[in-house]
Amino acid sequence: MKTQPAPSITGTAAADLKIVPRRHIGRWIGAAAVVLLLVWLAVSFSRAKINWPTVQEYLAVPVLIQGIGVALILTAVAMAIGLVLGVVTAVMRLSKNPVVSGVAWLYIWVFRGTPVYLQLLMWFNLALIFPVIGIPGLYSGRMIDILTPFVAASIGLGLNQGAYTSEVVRGGILSVDEGQLEAAQAVGMTRLQAMRRIVLPQAMRVIIPPVGNEVIGMLKTTSLASAIGVSEILSEAQHIYYVNNRIMELLIVCAVWYLGAVSILSIGQFYLERFFAKGSSSRQLPMTPLQRLSSIFGTNRKAQS
Amino acid sequence: MTTNVLVRAENVHKSFGLNEVLKGINLEVNSGEVVCLLGASGSGKSTFLRCINHLETLSNGRIWVGDKVVGYRQDGNRLFELSDKEAARQRRSIGMVFQRFNLFPHMTVLENIIEGPVLVNKVKPAEAKRHASELLARVGLEGREGSYPRQLSGGQQQRVAIARALAMKPELILFDEPTSALDPELVGEVLDVMKDLAKSGLTMIVVTHEIGFAKEVADRVAFMHGGEIVEIGPPAEVLGNPQHERTKAFLSRVF
Ligand SMILES: Nc1ncnc2c1ncn2[C@@H]1O[C@H](COP(=O)(O)OP(=O)(O)O)[C@@H](O)[C@H]1O
Ligand SMILES: [Mg+2]
To answer: What interface predicted TM-score (ipTM) does this complex get?
Structure first.
């Protein structure tokens, strides 16, 4: 090098310089404000006429634990139905066959266009239209016996969910480079094989975050199932507080259970996202909780990059 | 077949809407022959290549690979398009290498290579893996089985893509500008692998802008312009002493 460094920044050898990463003062101020707000809320709640021992007591009541269990099972069943329907109808909508894509479009139009509450009531009362169902000659049964509240709620929530998931899945499929389908076809795969082995696994990266969101939404929507007689946690809590009038206490108990369940679901989503990020660069991997904390407040340069 | 013609394109026409992209292509490629397709961007080279493995339908004409009409079943004077499943079956013996590699990013190098053989040809995984390792050695990438595509350079990715095509034991491989997306210093390693394949007697149709490669490796060079093959012959003739005006203009720009 012929040019000399400017005199004002000479004097120290580059090897002796210490690099100080950018400090996040705004984040610290913001965090302090949030903590203050939380303290104020906690104080208000503790001064209100809430009987905390009652809350603690009802946290262990079996019907409520069963109730959150019912909500979780209903969520799992409805989401399973929704995912299967969502993937199938998304692939159908992308079909070149206008009848196939038209059927999928119609399904989405109907089930996304009406309130889920109304759909639940319709499923529950389906016996009014089809009093008996079955396969002629093989099996037949009364609709009322088959469509129990839980079954009706599973089908109703699942079909409604499928219509939303379908659009999410379709977006995910469209996000995958067309060259992937062609490369798969070029090694002799059929379109369906290519979809299953090549396109959908890549689409999962785009699909999982919103579907995770929808699982959590579903857990809360299951409370609507109480309208058709499913004993989930919120309806059980109401049964109890109608009798003992501990309204806030029981609602807080429900909130605690819901938050607990949602937290567990979020952990599941987190690891699912990491699984399907296989082969992508590490910066696209969601961070583990520790990495996240240190990247928010820390001065750890590796997490910053 | 009595002759050793492997590919025969007869009067191939292809339109996208009103845009006629291929205007009657006739080409015969013998078994073991290497044919390079040259031509300006937009002249229909990729479209023609994609017609050969039925990634595109035809508007008119017919393409034979071996003793089969690609993508169609002839009944009298009509050609009925094959089902997706039947077309996929035909593609097993026709490999394709893309400009942008199109490796499966969620799979390792090994998984990329054995996916077709195992899923489509029902080869036993152990056998497919052994073959894959051999192919990786052949393209100069032994030991990279566990890497993901994004951990490889462009040249390495394209060599994996070639190994993936070879894993299906194709009788024909189509190359669509295999080195156009590569940094200049990586072009050579891919061309070397292709030269090696050509020597081994594989039938290859190569769309390329690498005149040097065409000169050295091609048995014949075809020059495309406006959806037609305007000139075809041994490289020395077409490249050394072009007859058609368009070929002359193109070559003077490339050199
Ligand atoms: N899927 C398609 N739909 C409509 N037009 C297309 C499509 N694919 C290619 N074309 C058109 O066909 C012409 C030839 O394209 P292409 O075969 O890719 O040329 P080349 O590979 O020689 O550059 C171009 O004008 C392009 O715009
Ligand atoms: Mg092209």
So the answer is: 0.94
B217-229, pLDDT tens digit by residue? 999 999 999 999 9
Query: At B19, is the secondary structure helix, strand, or coil?
Result: strand
- Pairwise CA distance, residues A156 & A225, whole Å: 9
How many other CB atoms sit within 10 Å of the CB of residue A240? Answer: 18
In the sheet where B203-207 sits, what is the strand order?
A: B94-97, B172-176, B203-207, B34-39, B220-225, B228-233
Please tell me the distance from the alpha carbon of residue B8 to that of residue A291, in angstroms, as a whole number.
60
Q: How confident is the model at residue B255 (pLDDT cuts 50, 70, 90)?
A: low
CA distances for B33 relative to B204, B219, B234, angstroms: 6, 6, 11
Please give the Cα distance from A80 to A16 (Å, whole number).
59
At A123 the three-state DSSP class reads helix
What is the Cα Rg of chain B in Å? 18
Do B106 and A179 count as a contact with CB atoms less than 8 A apart? no
Q: Which helix (H) or strand (E) holds B80?
A: strand B78-81
Atom of ligand 1 nearest to the CA of B50: 17
C-alpha to C-alpha distance for A260 and B158, rounded to whole angstroms:
49
Interface mutation vs chain B, best among A91, A97, A187, most B CBs within 10 Å: A187
Residue A303: what pLDDT? 41
Q: Is the CB of B125 under 6 A from ligand 1?
A: no
| Pair of tokens at residue B103 | 């490796």
Going A64 to A70 to A73 to A76, the CA torsion angle's sign is: negative
Q: Which one-letter amino acid corresponds to residue A258?
A: Y
Amino acid at B88: A
Q: What DSSP line would sit under B213-241, residue for residue? A: HHHHH-SEEEEEETTEEEEEE-HHHHHHS
Q: What is the mean pLDDT of chain A?
A: 86
Neighbour tally for B200: CB within 10 Å: 10
Residue A164 to residue B164: CA distance in whole angstroms: 37
Task: In whole angstroms, give the CA distance from residue B112 to residue B106.
Answer: 9
Give the residue from B116, B113, B178, B118 showing the smallest Cα distance to B146.
B113
Q: Is B46 in the pocket of ligand 1 (CB under 6 A)?
A: yes
The pLDDT of residue A282 is 54
| Distance between first and last Cα of chain A | 30
Confidence category of residue B2, pLDDT binned at 50, 70, 90: very low
- Across chain A, which has 305 residues, the per-10-residue mean pLDDT values are 58 77 86 92 82 87 91 95 95 91 95 93 87 78 83 94 95 95 96 95 91 91 90 90 90 93 89 81 63 67 44
User: Cα–Cα distance between A104 and A119 in angstroms, integer?
Assistant: 18
